[in-house]
Automatic annotation (TrEMBL):
It comes from the Eukaryota. Residues 1-23 form the signal peptide. GO terms for biological process: carbohydrate metabolic process. Residues 86-277 form the GH16 domain. It comes from Aureobasidium pullulans. This is Concanavalin A-like lectin/glucanase. GO terms for molecular function: carbohydrate binding; hydrolase activity, hydrolyzing O-glycosyl compounds. Keywords: Lectin, Signal.
Amino acid sequence: MVALKNTALNMMAIGAMAAVANADQSLEKRYTSSSSGSLVKGGCYYSVPNVGLFTTRMTYSWDNAFTLAATGVGVVQDLVSSLYTVGAGNSPLPRRFDLVNIGVSLLDPSITLTVPGGQTKGPISSAQITTAYDDILYGSVRTVAKISSVPGTTHGFSFYANDTQEIDFAFLTTSSGVAHLTNEQVSADSPATSYQVSAPSDATSAYHEYRVDWLPGKAMFYIDSKLVQTITGNVPTTQGFWLWNNWSNGNAWAQGPPAKDNVLKIRSIDGYFNRTSVLQTYAATPLGCNI
């Protein structure tokens, strides 16, 4: 459903606009094995109850209108904005992830990923943010979000390494009453592992927590802390990155493009990760860190 990042931009915003920092630096140059995020604690892990231990925590909340008005999204060192084009392939239209489509809502405090309405020619301008590091090997990620009520796009909260190493928590805004939970097939002859569960009845008018726990041998999906699906087939085993996006290419899956602005609102992201570049520096018998 996604293509590999070819450009990564530090995400900043002033009011509802986004500005660029370190635009010419690659992920590899900016995040090396000696790098640590703001919540990487040397020598101890984050202990997530009933899940496991993780080296890194990434947590952001955009639920305060006063703070958003003063700083916008602010400097977010662990998230980057995507800026690249995905070819049409077998779909009607290509799509392009643009920085301008990432903003903030002050009336409904959140960051926003927008697919502008009324587009008729490709590439369809869309929006995506990802973790700034691509060495994640297992994690537990909670996204508090409100789904758009405008038909014609796909919202995705996903782990991605490549097209055969991918976990998707997705919504089609044309049918927002259903959540699509998928481990993508690891090979052409692997059985499909994609399931549909009921989304909250007010998914387009209220915020809900959508969570994925990716562990060895399984991916577990939660809505508002309730386990709704466990998938044990096609579980990724390769390090990669986490992403959040809103896109359309006119295909039978995403449909659209939307006639009006389609806005995915994210109020918070709280992620716990094992990163391969960090894990190797930890003691064999770590301490637990309070979360």
